[in-house]
Amino acid sequence: MKKNLHPVDFNHRRNQFLTKIKKSVAVFPAAPEMIRNNDVHHEYRQESNFFYLSGFEEPNSILLFDPQNKSPFQMFVQPKNPTKELWEGPIVGPEGAKKHFGANSAFPSTDPKYFDEAFIKALLEAEVLYYRLGQNEDWDRRIFSLMKQAVRQLGRTGRGFWPIHDPNEILGEMRLIKTRAEAERLEHAANITAEAHVSAMKIAKPGMYEYEIEAALYHAFRGQGAGRLGYGSIVAGGANACVLHYVANNKKLDNQDLLLIDAGAEFEYYTADITRCFPINGQFTQEQKDIYLAVLKAQKSCVKMAKPGKSMKDLHHHAIEVLVEELKKLKVLKGTSSQLIKNKAYLPFYPHGTGHWLGMDVHDSGRYFSENYDTPRKLEPGMVITIEPGLYFGSGSKGPSKYQGIGIRIEDDVLITTSGNKVLTTGAPKEIEEIETLCNSN
Q: Is there a contact between 236 and 407 (Cβ–Cβ < 8 Å)?
């Protein structure tokens, strides 16, 4: 069950952001509603940066940050509408945006003049515009049109368009170091996800379909209070596990299959990301054990290595070193380790990275390199990463025939601490004995 979690301080986030943009203006349109068919929409999820700064989940809304204004945080939201609310539920409205979401001023978004006038006024006092290009063509056109109007108002000054910076340059760095409240939500999402993986190990049996396991995962997520999936679940039996982003989830599971599940619950906009592999019939074959133990050795070694001062590149290189040694022992690769690594001989079997940032998005924001983008950045306390080495023997891998069709990835979520790290996903077992015991428990 959900513990008492520390509240998220949206006001502190906004003030921190405002101090960083100084003589600038920043605009954040809400995520658009996506039509599924006719008048039916896909499930709505707010754009992550928009939610990070406001906690506001309604569509057709805009955030405007103007540090030069006596109302530095302005919201433009849907007005109250009894008919619309009858069909779709309560609307906060401008007064609610001020009362419940901290807006210094708020206006209806249905009348474009309110935002247009406020934005042009803010631009005229600003040196830089923070706005994320390329996410919404309609919004891109609107922003450029309004900048043209602002330039005209300046007359014959020779002024051109304002420099446009991606707000993710600032917010990505803010989001990268997790507060206590954020770490708690990530851990809660991890606990929900771990329990769902355990349930899958218990119920999976030969003859079931991948989609039955997928449905059980979703049931477990929602049953424990997760808002939604953090990403589309990968439920890949047998050789399907060698397809890295397999999403069909429609194969019937055979007796000798391993099942790879890569799935994570999202809780209050923070997502977990766990991958586990287990035998459908409850017993690893020797060949499956060979590959599994090789991946597990690399994964546990990288987890142990993850601490302040190391980088994601360090972890990846270490995973490669361990996996190359293991592949040599299994006679999959031959030659000196240094030459095999230099020639990337491991790549057909290990074609992806060893981890990524984790937070509001499964592949979360934040730079992987220094400000000059020339040096891998070091891990710091408060960062949350995944560690997920794998080995895959798909049709194009040219590995020994006895390993063909085996695909294994093991992934944990890891919070970097001052003294090392805390694994958030220990609730999902990964040792062979524990997995076999669970798989045979029902």
A: yes
Query: In the annotation, is 290 catalytic?
Result: no
Contact 18, 130 (CB under 8 A): no
CA angle (56 as vertex; 51, 60 as ends), nearest 5: 100
**39 catalytic, yes or no?**
yes
**pLDDT tens digits, one per residue of 81-120:** 999 999 999 999 999 999 999 999 999 999 999 999 999 9
Q: Looking at 130, 409, 412, 413, which residue is catalytic? A: 409
In this structure, are residues 55 and 9 in contact, taking their beta carbons and an 8 Å threshold?
no
Residue 392 is a catalytic residue: yes
Half-sphere CA count of 121, side-chain side, radius 13 A: 16
Q: Model confidence over 47-81: pLDDT tens digits? A: 999 999 999 999 999 999 999 999 999 999 999 99
Alpha helices in 163-269 (DSSP H): 168-176, 180-203, 210-223
Distance of alpha carbon 3 from alpha carbon 62, whole angstroms: 33
Catalytic residue status for 197: no
- Integer angstrom CA distances of residue 269 from 220, 352, 409: 17, 26, 25
Residue 319 has pLDDT above 60, yes or no: yes
- Among residues 273, 326, 361, 412, the one annotated as catalytic is 273
Q: Which residue among 100, 159, 363, 380 is the active-site one? A: 363
Is 388 designated active site? yes
pLDDT of residue 1 exceeding 60: no
Q: Across residues 246-265, what is the average pLDDT?
A: 97
Is 262 annotated as catalytic? yes
Overall average pLDDT of the 272-298 stretch: 98
The model's pTM is 0.96
Strands 73-77, 40-41: pairing kind? unpaired
Q: Which two tokens stand for residue 235?
A: 């439920």
Sheet harboring 265-267: ordered strands across?
228-229, 265-267, 270-271
Task: Say which of 66, 326, 388, 412 is annotated catalytic.
Answer: 388
DSSP assignment string, 275-339: EEEEETTS---HHHHHHHHHHHHHHHHHHHH-STT-BHHHHHHHHHHHHHHHHHHTTSS-S-HHH
Higher pLDDT, 243 or 39: 243
Q: Is the CB of residue 346 less than 8 Å from the CB of residue 399?
A: no
The Cβ of residue 275 has, within 10 Å, a number of other Cβ atoms equal to 24
Taking the C-alpha atoms of residue 412 and residue 406, their distance in angstroms, rounded to an integer, is: 20
Residue that has been written with the tokens 């502190």 in this structure: 12
Please, are residues 149 and 118 in contact by the beta-carbon 8 Å criterion? Answer: no
**Whether 156 is catalytic:** no
Could you say which of 182, 210, 411, 436 is catalytic?
411
